[in-house]
Amino acid sequence: MIDFARNVRLWFAPAEVRQEGTTPDYRFSLANERTFLAWLRTALALIGGGFAVDQFLPDLRWGWRVGLALALLAAGALCALRAVSHWVRCERAMRRGEDLPVSRFPALLSAVVAVVAVAMVVVVLFGWEG
Amino acid sequence: MSGAVAPGAGRDPGLQPERTRLAWRRTTLSGTVVVALALRAASADGMPAAGVVACALCCAWWLGFLWIAHRRIRGLAAVSAPGAPAMPYAVGAVICTVALALCGAVLVGAG
Q1: ipTM > 0.95 (yes/no)
Q2: Which residues of A lie closer than 8 Å to B, measured between beta carbons?
Q3: Taking the domains of chain B in order of start, what are their residue ranges?
């Protein structure tokens, strides 16, 4: 938790990140930036999925529809926050010459997306009469 | 590839800035799809005022995102400093995305 608070502080203090270690080849920094953007697109896709569930499944019970949509929107927001957090951690690791940070987040996100997908299949097949 | 030289000295940037520029462009396109869906939601019959305001805020955050991406793309086009710090842009883009999700939650709840 303290690590996370420190990480958030670094989001708004880029100069502090640049004080550590040596500047890596900027091509690696740009690759790091593209990875961040890919995660941001994933976040935007989850947010768009939330809107899509809300609009394209109008026959669902209100609770299911809004619940699934809000879950997807929350996943999108979380994914976006995690994207910048991971970028900062990778940037610091590169500057210090350490190994890149490993993360359980991709596995967690995959599991959540799979659960939501299965829930939607079940709800669409059996939840119409609601 | 050795990191001992001064930043940016004698390295061939190759297509890296170009690829990064296109990645920003793809990301703004993803945001555009999200805002199109938000506009579709807000134009539904019987949408209360709160939903319309939330949709307007979504559009505002999307414009903020476009502005940030535009500035970053112009920074990448400046060949002299492709390694300029990108973190403020990233943090700004994430703030816009999270705010978009929050406004979207209000919009979905109001619908």
Answers
A1: no
A2: 11-12, 14, 17-18, 22-27, 29-31, 33-34, 36-38, 40-41, 43-45, 47-48, 50-52, 54-55, 66, 69-70, 73-74, 76-77, 80-81, 83-84, 87-88, 91
A3: 16-110
